Amino acid sequence: MASIMVTAQCLCKAQTFTTEVPASNFPLLATACHCDSCRRVTGALYSINLPWPEPRVNVDISKLARYAFSSRIRVFFCRTCSTPIFFEDGDLGDLDVFTGAVKNDAGDVMDLKIIRHIFVGDTRDGGASMWLRKPNADGSEAKRFKERSRGEDSTENAIPIRCHCKGVDLVLHRGNYNGKKREELPWFIDPKTHKAIAGFCACDSCRLSFGVDVCNWSFAELNNISYSEALTKNGKVFPRNTSELKAAVDRKDSSIGTLTYYASSPNVQRYFCGSCGACVFYAADDRPDIVDVAIGVLEASDGARAEGFHSWALGKVGSIGDTKGGWREGLMARVEKECEEWREQRGYPKNWRRVEREAAEAKGGTNY
Predict the structure, then answer these.
(1) Cα separation of 293 and 290, whole Å?
(2) Contact predicate 49/99, CB 8 Å
(3) 3-state secondary structure of 216
(4) CA–CA separation, 365 and 368 (whole Å)
(5) Helices (H) and strands (E) in the chain, counts
(6) Are the CB atoms for 36 and 108 separated by under 8 Å?
(7) What is the Cα 8 distance to its own chain's centre?
(8) Residue 145's closest CA among 124, 172, 165?
(9) Cis status of the peptide bond prior to 27, with omega within 30 of 0
(10) 353 vs 285: CA distance, rounded Å
(11) Which of 259, 33, 66, 73 is nearest to 163 (CA)?
(12) How many other CB atoms are there within 10 angstroms of residue 37's CB atom?
C-alpha cells in the first residue's frame, strides 16, 4: 500500500476525522502519560497520544467541546458522548490524537509504537505502566521512569471520586460486608478481603469513552457512594439506584455537579463530566444498585490502582473479541502476557474469580 487511511471517530459517530498517511510512516510513534491530570481528564489510568498526521490548518475541530487542561494544553472531546479526540498544544497549535479514538483497521499494517511513559511517578504505584512495559510488536520496551516502591495497601475507608475540573466531586466508601456469607455478597466482592474486583476491558464502546486502548473499571454499590462532605452534612443523599441517578441528571440537580450521561444503548448510561469530559460511571438498567467506576478518577493514597480497595483481575482482558483483525489484537495479547508476568513477579495470588473459573473448567464446567 502506498498510503493508509487513519480514522479517529467518537462513540456516537457524530465526529469523524480522517487523513491519509504514507505506509512508510508506520508504526506511528506514541507517548503514554500517567500524570494525575491525564487520569482525571479521561477516567483511565493513563492517556496515549500521537501527533495527528495532518496539518493543523486542515482540521476543523469547531464542533468539539473544548477544555483548558492547563495554561498551555487543551483537550477536545465530543460533547455528546465524551470521547476525547485531540490534545492541542497552545504554544504550537499542533494536534495529538488520543489513540483510543483511532479505528481498529488495517491489521498489522496500521500500527503504533509506544516509545515512552511519562509522569509515572504521579501514580505512586506504577499505575498501568506495569502492563505496558513491552507493548510493541517489535518487542521493544517503552522508556519509563523508575517505579517507586509501593507502600502498604491503604486502609482508608473512603476515597474521592473526582474529575479534573472537580465538577464531579463524590466519595466512594468501603462497603461493610462483615459477617455476610459468601452467597450474601455482591458478585464483585472478594469473599476473603471484601475488596471490589478491578479489571480490564477492550470493547470498542469503553475505549471510545475513555480514549485509551484498554480500559480499567471497578464496581460499587450505589449505597456506598456519597456526595462530598459539605453536601452530606446538609442531608443530601446520593441516588440509591440507577433510575434515581439518571433522574437527578435529567432534572439538572445542582448536587450532581457536572455529571451527565450518554445512552450508548437503550438500557445503558455512560456517565461523564460535561465540563472536562472525564469518564466516571457505567450504569445498566438490569443492575439497578450497581455502577462500574472508572479507576482513573479515584484518588487513593496508596496509588493509582487503589489496591487497598481493589482485587485486581490480572491476566485477562475482557471483550478482547472487539480487537480481532485489527492492530489492537496484538497489543491486547501483549498486555495479557505482561499482566501475568508482573503478577507472578510480585507474588500476587490469582484473583478469586479466576481461581473459581479455572477450577470449574478443570471439572468440565461451562456455566461459570
Answers:
(1) 9
(2) yes
(3) strand
(4) 7
(5) 6, 19
(6) no
(7) 18
(8) 124
(9) yes
(10) 24
(11) 259
(12) 17
Using DSSP's 3-state secondary structure scheme, residue 47 falls into strand
* Cβ atoms within 10 Å, residue 94: 14
CA distance 24 to 21: 8
b/e code 286-324 from CB counts within 10 Å (16+ = b) = ebeebbbbbbbbbebebbbbbbbbbbbbbbbbbbbebbe
- Cα distance between residue 225 and residue 220, in whole Å: 8
CA dihedral 150, 156, 162, 167 (to 10 degrees): -150
Cβ burial, residue 197 (10 Å; 0-12/13-18/19+): buried
Both ends of the chain: CA-CA distance in Å?
Answer: 45
What is the rounded CA–CA span in Å between residue 280 and residue 262? 12
- Are residues 296 and 40 in contact, defined by beta-carbon separation less than 8 angstroms? yes
Mean pLDDT of 274-282: 98
Q: What angle do CA 234, 156, 270 make, to 5 degrees?
A: 65
The H or E element containing residue 250 is helix 242-250
Whether omega for the bond prior to residue 55 falls within 30 degrees of 0, making it cis, is no
> What predicted TM-score, i.e. pTM, was given to this entire model?
0.94
Question: d(Cα 291, Cα 52) in Å, to the nearest integer?
Answer: 34
Encode pLDDT of 308-363 as tens digits.
999 999 989 999 999 998 889 999 999 999 999 999 999 999 988 899 888 998 88
Q: What is the mean pLDDT of residues 88-109?
A: 82
Reading phi first (left if > 0) and then psi (alpha if -120 to 50, else beta), residue 211 is in left
- Could you tell me if 218 and 297 are in contact, meaning their C-beta atoms sit under 8 angstroms apart? no
